[in-house]
Design goal:
It is built from one helix and eight strands, in the order H-E-E-E-E-E-E-E-E. With about 150 residues, it is mostly beta strands. The strands form two sheets. The chain has a five-stranded mixed β-sheet with strand order 2-8-7-4-5, with no helix packed on it. Strands 1-3-6 form a three-stranded antiparallel β-sheet, with no helix packed on it.
Length: about 150
């Protein structure tokens, strides 16, 4: 019996010493960072008297006829919710008179074109004008374009 006990202890000892190796740790996979979209911004304003389906002006101009409809194509960059405001003014010396003001809101996932326009069925008075484009609720223009009516 003593011999059976010793053989059992030796067998148990051998079994305990030959434990299988633990599995290797799972590889660590780094998460791919998601780029933060650029904030909304006004990239450019182009004026013209005709606009295409993509809301860009057909031919850029800075001088218009008294009967022209005047378009401002506003190129934006960034992603998110945009609020744009166009303030059209007649300029005489250091005085300005508001002609028209329009606001639009939209969502964009990247670069986009939007348009504002003004028209005057009676014809524009000849002189100097400007359009100011505001982004969000800012009181500082993101872009300004001067133009003439002759």
């Amino acid at each position: 019996m003593r011999r059976a006990t010793i053989l059992t202890l030796v067998a148990l000892s051998a079994a305990c010493g030959s434990k299988p190796a633990p599995p290797p740790p799972a590889p660590v996979v780094a998460a791919t960072p998601v780029p933060t979209p650029a904030p909304p911004a006004v990239a450019a304003v182009t004026l013209g008297n005709a606009i295409g389906a993509d809301k860009s002006v057909a031919a850029a101009a800075e001088t218009f006829a008294v009967k022209d409809t005047i378009y401002a194509s506003v190129a934006t960059t960034g992603a998110g919710h945009f609020k744009l405001r166009a303030l059209w003014s007649f300029v005489k010396g250091d005085k300005t008179a508001k002609v028209n003001e329009t606001t639009m809101e939209f969502d964009a996932a990247g670069p986009a074109n939007n348009e504002f326009h003004v028209e005057n069925a009676k014809g524009w008075p000849k002189g100097d004008y400007k359009v100011e484009i505001f982004l969000g609720d800012s009181e500082t223009a993101a872009a300004t374009k001067a133009f003439k009516v002759q």
